[in-house]
TrEMBL record:
Positions of the NADP-dependent oxidoreductase domain: 16-314
Superkingdom of origin: Bacteria
Source organism of this protein record: Pseudonocardia oroxyli
Keyword NADP (UniProt): yes
Transmembrane regions: none
Protein known as: Predicted oxidoreductase
Family membership noted in the UniProt record: Belongs to the shaker potassium channel beta subunit family.
Length: 336
């Protein structure tokens, strides 16, 4: 396993980080989820990312149970706050001081730990003053319940404003967690340069584009039975935008590039995001332990420049590059 510093912080994390967004507590049984976590540990992964909203808290519970008995100091556990959780009452959401301080305590109970290494704002809250949000995060850190703070799917402007407040509050804002893959590159024009300037590292999610970059979805064919595209509990909606014949045809052109490098298409996709020096880790999930074993082989791989150019040529204009989509991903109404 390769380890990288998270932004300018002194904390190192595994370049392949295990995430349990669409699996634990929903798509796979708890015992299989535990097997996946054990496989991650066996292959050198020490960093685990979750969120309170995943399966309405169940994902945190499953992860905490799977990690029970491990030396806490040898792990990096990340979670997030923002989306509605619990009974979805009027204050069970957003980035208010009330929800953040109550949210961290609930997450720690579910995870079975005294602290998380990174506590992240899962989206930007346009209805709560940023000063209130950042003061609450600072208090979480000072209480010893989180070591660092981060954001997810924030625009460059939002990140810059939060960083300024973090500096004034003497807390470490060290990371951004955006979607990033060969097919989704909207962070490159603005978010990545801003984070590089301010010292934030990228922990990128969906590096395999919800499974599309594995090549298993073929143009003109129905999705394979049991695949994410057939999961009506959330997976199908997440992957739908990639499932058009033009994109799927272009993705198939990546197969010979991966083959020439001795990689599977999934490994090529993960290695591609890790090629970006500002990316500290690629988040990968799994519904089977074998998937973990495959993904970790991307750690430490360097893709030659000619192969990088061939990837760009193969995908062409199917790549989403609109930087404006980052800001537009911020919910404009309170989550309910």
């Amino acid at each position: 396993m390769e380890f990288r510093y998270l932004g300018r912080s002194g904390m190192q994390i595994s370049a392949i980080t295990y995430g349990n967004w669409l699996t634990h507590g929903s798509q796979v049984e708890n015992d299989v989820a535990t097997q996946c976590v054990r496989a991650a540990l066996d292959h050198g992964i020490t960093t685990f990312d979750t969120a309170d909203v995943y399966a309405n808290g169940k994902a945190e519970e499953v992860l905490g149970a799977a990690l029970k008995g491990e030396r806490r100091e040898s792990l990096e556990i990340f979670t997030k706050v923002y989306w509605p959780v619990g009974p979805r009452g009027k204050n069970d959401q957003g980035l208010s001081r009330k929800h953040i301080l109550e949210g961290i305590d609930a997450s720690l109970r579910r995870l079975g730990t005294d602290y998380v290494d990174l506590y992240q704002a899962h989206r930007y809250d346009v209805y709560t003053p940023l000063e209130e949000t950042m003061q609450a995060f600072a208090d979480v850190v000072r209480a010893g319940k989180a070591l660092y703070i981060g954001v997810s799917e924030w625009s460059a402007e939002q990140i810059r404003a939060a960083h300024g407040l973090a500096v004034s509050l003497s807390v470490s804002l060290v990371s951004s967690q955006p979607q990033y893959s060969m097919l989704h590159r909207i962070i490159e024009p603005e978010v990545v340069p801003t984070c590089e300037e301010l010292g934030l590292g990228q922990i990128v999610w969906s590096p395999i584009a919800q499974g599309v970059l594995t090549g298993k979805y073929k143009p003109g064919e129905a999705p394979p039975p049991g695949s994410r595209a057939t999961d009506e509990s959330g997976g199908a909606q997440a992957i739908a935008r990639f499932l058009n014949d033009e994109t799927l045809t272009r993705v198939q052109a990546l197969a010979p590039i991966a083959g020439d490098l001795g990689l599977t298409m999934a490994q090529l996709a993960v290695a591609w995001v890790l090629q970006n020096a500002d990316v500290a880790a690629a988040l990968v999930g799994a519904s089977r332990p074998e998937q973990v074993a495959e993904n970790v082989k991307a750690a430490g791989v360097r893709i030659p420049e000619d192969a990088m150019k061939a990837i760009d040529a193969a995908l062409g204009d199917s790549v989403e590059r609109d930087a404006g989509l980052v800001a537009r991903s911020t919910p404009r109404r309170r989550p309910v």
